[in-house]
Amino acid sequence: VGGLSTPGLKRLLDGARALLMPSFAEGFGLPVAEALAASVPVIASNIPVFRETGGARITTLSPIAGEDWLDTIRIMARSNRPERQTIGAASDRYEATAGSNYFAEVRNFLDTL
Known about the structure:
This protein is 53% helix and 9% strand. The protein has six helices and three strands; from the N terminus they run αβαβαβααα. Strands 1-2-3 form a three-stranded parallel β-sheet, sandwiched between helices. Strand 2, helix 3 (48-54) and strand 3 (59-61) form a beta-alpha-beta unit. The radius of gyration is 15 Å and the shape is globular.
């Protein structure tokens, strides 16, 4: 959603059953980090950036596996399903990367170039 304010984003995430990120390419994956920080389960394409950002806390699928996406969305739509509770519990333990660690990681990466 373009032009959404921070409070507006928070309201959307608060009411979300899951964040869907069916993408073939992505920069950092900020929506994934934001959703996890808000304890919202994430269903994302199995591309490296999402696996790095979300790790085992997210559900990853092939971006072209339409039936798998539909099945997973149906599971997330049922709030009483054990799968959703498991994913939600993993999301509850998510901690965003601390600013100082982030810049140290970037500096270390740049040193390898």
